[in-house]
Amino acid sequence: MKRIIRSWVNIVTILVAVSACTSLQEFEVPDVFSVSNSLLTFSNSPEIKTVSVKSGAVWTFYDVPEWIKVEKINSARSSHFEWNVDFLSMANEGYDREGIIVIKAGSETIEIQVSQAGKKGKYVAVESVSLSPAELTLTEGESASLAVKISPSNASEKTVQWTSDSPSVATVDADGKVHALTPGTTVITVKTEDGGKTATCSVTVNKKVISVTGVSLDKSALTMTAGDTQTLTATVTPSNATDKSVTWSSDNTSVATVSSSGVVTAKAAGTAKITVKTNDGGKTATCTVTVKAATVPVTGVSLNKTTLSMTAGGTQTITATVTPSNATNKSVTWSSDNTSVATVSSSGVVTAKAAGTAIITVKTNDGGKTATCTVTVKAATVSVTGVSLDKTSLTMTIGDLQTLTATITPSNATNKSVTWSSSNKSVATVSSSGVVTGQSVGTATITVTTNDGGKTATCTVKVQAATVPVTGVSLNKTSLSMTVGDTQTLTATVTPSNATNKNVSWSSSNTSVATVSSSGVVTAKAAGTATITVKTNDGGKTAKCTVTVKNKDVNGSGNENTGEDDLFGIPVPEAVDLGLSVKWASFNLGASKPEEYGYYYAWGETSPKTDYSWNTYKWGNPPSKYNQTDGKETLDPSDDAARVVLKGNWRMPTYEEEKELYEKCSRVYTQINGINGYQITGPNGNSIFLPSAGLYDGGSSCYDQNYGGWYWSSSLCTVTYASGFYFYSSTFYTGDHQHERSDGHVIRPVYAE
């Protein structure tokens, strides 16, 4: 900070006072202002010194150091002016400081030397820097530290920076540690922050030497023929070894030699060991070479016969001669171009089979040389020894045709011709090809006789009157309306009325709704629809009757189709066998197909409703039934909606049955006609579909339809909770899950036989 101070003085006196300035020291300054060495010295602590100048001239302070503050103070003395020189009232945390305060009066000046002690003492500048060592040799992957020396040793600022002029070869970190990366040279430079002094170290990085640890050969044994060559391949480990050169040798060069590249040459019969040895480490591997004598190739083959005449069933031997006689491999292969005429064994034995011509060929395995012999076979006479028929008895009607087949033995008999005859042509006749025709009612014997040897076989033919085939069947009713438990009889009429076989069979398309006896008695089992079919045994003609079954009036209204508790018209599902302890319904209670949701029921109630809350719950809250008092844990039949509605063997599943469905069946989340749900497949491959029907949760609104599914079981969990299963697309929970009994869930019935 600079301040301008004016005063009039003839004689200048500088007074320096410490703190309260209780005493002053006077220095008389001559006109030439020769006191330039006057000093103001401050300690490291906050401190104020006072400068006093007698009046008589205009004095001005110039060039005041920034760490000094000069402030004029009022003085009661008229003979001089006073200024406080203040070291900014704080300690100096750095190095010692020096400065000059210049006082000017006209063209004359006085310089006052100002200094202050710092906590770090006097600042010492860096004069030079050096590195040790000045040269460094490393191997790839190694590291070494450089020692830096700064002079003088008491320099105030010793911070340095490190650089590498080729960091791909070696890098250096902030501590002067050099890291060798790749082979090459680089210069590491250190530079001081104070003064920019530098020193260098030349670094040479050598490639890392990787020693050989082993060697192997691609073959440990070779079998060769004299004159042959084969190449052995040596693999040195590790694959990045520095020196992978090897030397090859043979312990028996008269048997086999080896080149510098591993090519083995077989010289003569015998055994030799080929050794490969690494130049680095002397690691070895061996291959045993067995040399066989050179082979003598086949140049030709001939047969002792080029033609043969034989009779079927006879044999003859052909002899093959291979040339040269000292050929190494004299083995041959025999073949016939027509084995139905003549065959040949591996030793050249020809067997005549049947009349005709065949060419027998011998072929050498070495060189494929061939020779042939043409064999002409004449037929041999084979006598018939017997004859049989495919049927020994026949039952026919007048006008029918049936064919008998005769089999001659032996199968290769020369003359297989036969003659057919009938013992009673008025009853049955037979053609020359064995076709029997029924002529009239009675019995006849058909005989076949061989022309060679007169061998015979017979078939007894019984001819009956002609049958009248069934042309159709009809029922006295094509539809029936019944009530569960009722029976009605259907009557079948077979046409024509004189049909020979009027027997029929009866069946029902849905036996859980209606059954039918073998005499056409229909019994209504449960509400729903079934088709009764009658089928003739002769011709498979059919007629059908549609049966509609309704439940009995259960609310006493006298109207089967009205009333809040109307349960009629609810379809009866198919009982699907999944391979479990019970059969499962093909759709929900109240639905008509698998993807329909059906009706919703509170647990233990047998009718659907619009409000599913404790206020409307049949058994109240707390429940008056299925509680701790009565100890009931499973629904009574009268409270089982499936049993009440469907009757018969239908009921709600138990907790254990739902658990069995979960544990023994597979599940796939899928869609049917846009409705989400799970396809459940049993161990036997049959399946059912459970739609995501949602639930009524404490009111009149249905939640999560086509998103999740909630299904009741007949089992109780606690007084207010019943068990069941529910699911979403990614989860399926078993009957362990608890549901409030008053909620509205769907029911998938089971059929227990």
Quick synopsis:
The protein is an all-beta fold and 753 residues long. The chain has 2 helices and 67 strands.
Averaging pLDDT over every residue, what do you get? 85
Number of helices: 2
How can the largest sheet be summarized? 4 strands, antiparallel
Tally the beta strands.
67
First-last Cα distance: 113 Å
Strand order in the largest sheet: 2-5-8-7
List the helices and strands and how they pair.
Blueprint: E1 12-13, E2 15-18, E3 28-29, E4 38-42, E5 48-54, E6 60-62, E7 69-73, E8 80-86, E9 97-105, E10 108-116, E11 128-132, E12 135-139, E13 143-145, E14 147-151, E15 160-164, E16 170-172, E17 177-180, E18 184-192, E19 198-206, E20 214-217, E21 221-225, E22 229-231, E23 234-237, E24 246-250, E25 256-258, E26 263-266, E27 270-278, E28 284-292, E29 300-303, E30 307-311, E31 315-317, E32 320-323, E33 332-336, E34 342-344, E35 349-352, E36 356-364, E37 370-378, E38 386-389, E39 393-397, E40 401-403, E41 406-409, E42 418-422, E43 428-430, E44 435-438, E45 442-450, E46 456-464, E47 472-475, E48 479-483, E49 487-489, E50 492-495, E51 504-508, E52 514-516, E53 521-524, E54 528-536, E55 542-550, E56 575-576, E57 583-585, H1 641-646, E58 650-651, H2 655-664, E59 666-672, E60 675-681, E61 687-691, E62 695-696, E63 702-703, E64 709-716, E65 721-727, E66 732-740, E67 750-751
Parallel strand pairs: 4-10, 12-19, 21-28, 30-37, 39-46, 48-55
Antiparallel strand pairs: 1-3, 2-5, 5-8, 6-9, 7-8, 9-10, 11-14, 13-17, 15-18, 16-17, 18-19, 20-23, 22-26, 24-27, 25-26, 27-28, 29-32, 31-35, 33-36, 34-35, 36-37, 38-41, 40-44, 42-45, 43-44, 45-46, 47-50, 49-53, 51-54, 52-53, 54-55, 56-57, 57-67, 58-67, 59-60, 60-61, 62-63, 64-65, 65-66
